[in-house]
Task: inverse folding
């Protein structure tokens, strides 16, 4: 699908969005690499109330949010209506997506959309992140995800992942 490193995949005229939540910058770095590889518009998912910077405090808060299925209010819920393919990125918090991504999925209509999930993690892999995304967007087609450890994502691996799903 890529003629050379600088070419973009042929999305058949479909409109592409890269939406992501990033606490430490790792997921944002992957989102930027995806945009270079696939093109498309960027949307940063931002909680109305920012998470604490301290790692241990965030870990404890994320655990509480998961236990209570908290979906924090966002600065902007975004709008996926005019997009066909949505790359959706999140850090893995307690074996699933971060709370702001749950909110984003629940506040938008993903019916008939293609979701290309991606995540960053600190050692536990994607766990149930991608299957949980499918549960929150049951009428979307959630394709094989791209998972990277912290900031280990490589441009060539991202291109290979995008090529492998035949957008």
Result:
């Amino acid at each position: 699908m890529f003629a050379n490193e600088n070419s973009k995949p042929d999305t058949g005229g479909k409109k592409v969005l890269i939406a992501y939540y990033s606490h430490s910058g790792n997921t944002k770095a992957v989102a930027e690499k995806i945009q270079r590889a696939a093109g498309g518009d960027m949307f940063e998912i931002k909680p109305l109330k920012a998470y604490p910077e301290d790692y241990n405090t965030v870990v404890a808060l994320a655990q509480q949010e998961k236990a209570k299925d908290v979906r924090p209010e966002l600065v902007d819920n975004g709008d996926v209506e005019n997009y066909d393919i949505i790359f959706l990125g999140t850090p893995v918090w307690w074996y699933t997506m971060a709370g702001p991504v749950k909110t984003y999925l629940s506040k938008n209509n993903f019916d008939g959309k293609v979701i290309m999930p991606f995540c960053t993690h600190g050692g536990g892999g994607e766990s149930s992140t991608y299957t949980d995304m499918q549960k929150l967007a049951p009428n979307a087609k959630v394709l094989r995800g791209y998972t990277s450890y912290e900031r280990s994502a490589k441009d060539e691996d991202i291109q290979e992942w995008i090529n492998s799903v035949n957008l």
